[in-house]
Amino acid sequence: MTTRVLQAWNGEAVDRGDVPVLPVEEFQQIVADAVTSGARVSSLAGRADGDRTRVTAVLADDALGRLSLLSTRVGSSWPSLAAECPSVQAFEREIFEQFGVRPEGHPWLKPLRFEPPHVPGIDPWGRIARPSTIPGDYPFFRVEGEEVHEVAVGPVHAGVIEPGHFRFQCHGEHVFTLEIVLGYQHRGVEPLLLGGPDRRTVTLVESVAGDTSVGNAIAHANAVEALADYQIPARASVLRGVALELERLANHVGDLGMLAGDVGFLPTASYCGALRADFLNSLAEICGNRFGRGLVVPGGIRFDLDAAAAGRLADKVQKAWEQVEGASRLFFESPSVRNRLDGTGVVSRETCTELGLVGPAARACGVSRDVRRDHATGVFRFLHIPTVTGETGDVFARAWVRRLEAERSAEFVMRQLRSLPGGPVRAPCPPPRPDRLVVSLVEGWRGELCHVVETDETGRFARYKLVDPSFHNWMGLAMALRSEQISDFPLCNKSFNLSYCGHDL
Amino acid sequence: MDGIPGILQFRAGFGRQTVAYPEGPARFPERFRGLPVLDPSAGDGGRAGAAVCPTDAVRDPGAPGMTIDLGRCTFCGLCEEASPGAIRFTRDYRISGRTREELRVDGRAPLLAAKLDEKARSLFGRSLRLRQVSAAGCNGCEAELNASGNIQFDMSRFGVAFVASPRHADGLVVTGPVSANMREALLRTWEATPAPRLVIAVGACACSGGIFRDSPVQSNGMPGVPEIPVDLWVAGCPPHPITFIDGVLRLLGRVEGDRLQLAGTGIVEAG
Ligand code: SF4
Question: What is the 3-class SS of A185-219, one letter each residue?
């Protein structure tokens, strides 16, 4: 993968004409070789190109911190790579669903999110002529045999959470397989972003996944700024980092509380539920919204803090963090808790690599990948947050990695708030330049957020591809449940805590 | 200290967490954006604000009848930034109404949801069990609804709680613009809820489609699902837990009058 691909950095805009267009065989050979030698597929996405579909791949080489871009033009079908590279299975289904390009030989070709096609005149699943509901009409995998039974859960769940459907093939308590059907949350985000940037764009991006508003807003702003050749002021860059880590803190601490609730350890469940709010309220102190909405815009950030307010915020985070330490100590040191977490829902390092998992779910398997370190942008080019890994790939590891990561985030937030660089936090960002392409990666709290943005000859968005970390990780949850007890499902599910709407777009 | 003594010791140090609201104030950060107050005769009359609004929520800028439709508003504050003087957000967290139309406000009067009739209050007033249905909510509203039940906001103090099954519920709380892919599940959940039942639409998406309005794969929120009548509309993106709780308590007649229970900001009084 030397000469036939275009190399770029995270957040570096390139001329879109420079992305090589390769014959399908060569394109797929390069993708397969890269994956075999340890690269990840960050994005594999189509867009209409005359009567064909242009598929662009973004391969991430985490060791070198480099991204490789390459593309190909395909007709109504192409050979599937998914058997060889399982990490592309969902991408191939997505390209089929959106553009009708059938991946021949795909091991498990089925709807991804029941999205209407992006080009007229195609009906990949034959559903337009015969509208049907999900999951009523779905090719579920079935295990047959004496006393084998099926358990169906969702889309409406017992808790206050987003909808998805889970189908278990069981023998008694024992789970053979879990199949996850998503798409209920589909809102048509990508088509709505086309033709932007416009006045809706930032709010849309913030609403892709409400718990990741800051992460997606930063990925978007980085992309637009790169497309415009614009550099934000240093103070804005640091405060964006603070907001991103506050978002991580809030969610990781909230997850520890939820996990505690799921194993019936109520002290930590109650404390973490309340402490999570301290981090959300810290975001609200900065910008008025507990999810950090309205804070990040192309050009910088909309709200500044004076030195005194920043110092008070640092104190508040410090106090909250000390309490999280205590609350999580109770949790991790309780033998009955450990008994439920240890060895539950194991994902092996091999499976993790094969599926291309990202974020804490990957790091819990001992796979050290973190955009903040591997593809650093913004403040993370200068200030490093140590990457945390676990070993065991089980619920315990996913919980423990969150606990340790939250600590690093808290340290970062406190330190930065007490030593903010001076200067403005915002300057006008010019419009994106025409015919460019940028890949913008951000380590959201669930893992890699990937925005691949192309502008047309007028500088408008011709394609806006979003890849949520959950897109990679849902399959990890399905694998974690194999040979588990069905009663451990809520715990395993919470230990991943994936986004439904981030996946469904 | 280990085990139960350690837990108790930690508990003692944690102190009281639950907000004083409704008897006392709830704290809102200084920059919190609640009910807007409009003055079409000031500044540019809100014209620039209307032009930057991502959801077309600012209506009739410059005219005496200028309003902001809180059912659409995401409370991004861009209009306030663009039209200083004409548009100003207050920290009044009470932004829910009994009809969709009420959410169109000019801020000259507080927006207080009226209570249910006496019969309904006698049925639901002391114990209200709700089933939440996320119909393509982005997990912002869902997260805040979850937070309503945590030890800080502790909605179950009032006998209001979320339950696992619509069969056990007195009503539904709907979030999200109602995606095409969730529409049937929503209708079926509603049908599974025994009558009489309440329906509460929470957040800009459920009230209008929010930022997803007019996307062809959703319904523009509950106004696009006429089969299901809505009893309470709660504005916000997402609504603050206190906004939701206040709306529900007003619906039940358990909070009345227009005393604003608002305290200072968190960072000024750190902790
Ligand atoms: S605060 Fe509301 S009315 Fe103002 S610009 Fe934002 S969405 Fe529009």
Answer: CCCCHHHHHCCCCCCCHHHHHHCCCHHHHHHHHHH
Nearest-angstrom CA–CA distance, A395 and A401: 10
Alpha-carbon gap, residue A227 to A453, rounded angstroms: 9
Atom of ligand 1 nearest to the CA of B56: 8
Asked if the structure places residue B160 within a domain, the reply is yes
Ligand 1 atom closest to B80 (CA): 4
Token representation of residue A161: 């959470």
* Total count of domains within chain B: 1
CA-based nearest residue to B243, from B231, B226, B255, B230 = B255
**Which 3 state secondary structure label does DSSP give A14?**
strand
pLDDT tens-digit readout, A144-198:
888 888 888 888 888 888 888 998 888 888 888 899 999 999 999 999 999 989 9
Assigned token pair, A244: 């991103």
For A260, half-sphere exposure in the C-beta direction (CA atoms, 13 angstrom radius) is 26
For residue range B189-247, what is the model confidence (pLDDT) as tens digits? 999 999 899 999 999 999 999 999 999 999 999 999 999 999 999 999 999 999 999 99
In a domain, B13, yes or no: no
In the 3-class helix/strand/coil scheme, how is A338-407 assigned residue by residue?
Answer: HHHHCCCCCCCHHHHHHHCCCHHHHHCCCCCCCHHHHCCCHHHHCCCCCCCCCCCCCHHHHHHHHHHHHH
The alpha-carbon gap from A163 to the nearest alpha carbon of chain B, in Å, equals 6
Query: Can you give the CATH number for the domain in which B131 is found?
Result: 3.40.50.12280
ω into residue B238 within 30 of 0, thus cis?
A: yes
Q: Is residue B43 part of a domain?
A: no
Instruction: Supply the ipTM of this predicted assembly.
Output: 0.91
Phi-psi domain of A88 (left: phi exceeds 0; alpha: psi -120 through 50; beta: other): alpha
| Ligand 1 neighbour B237 (Cβ under 6 A) | no
In a mutational test of the B interface, the residue from A182, A184, A255 whose CB has the highest number of chain B CBs within 10 Å is A184
- Residues A490, A261: Cα–Cα separation, whole Å: 10
Place of tokens 């597929």: A41
> Domain range spanning residue B200?
118-251
Q: Which domains does chain A have, with CATH numbers?
A: 1-112 (3.30.460.80), 189-467 (1.10.645.10)
Could you tell me the pTM of the whole model?
Answer: 0.93
Please check whether residue B263 lies inside any domain of the structure.
Answer: no
* C-alpha to C-alpha distances, A5 to A18, A26, A70, A289, nearest whole angstrom: 9, 11, 5, 42
Cα of B55 vs centre of ligand 1, distance in Å, is 7
Question: CA B97, CA B233: separation in Å to the nearest integer?
Answer: 5
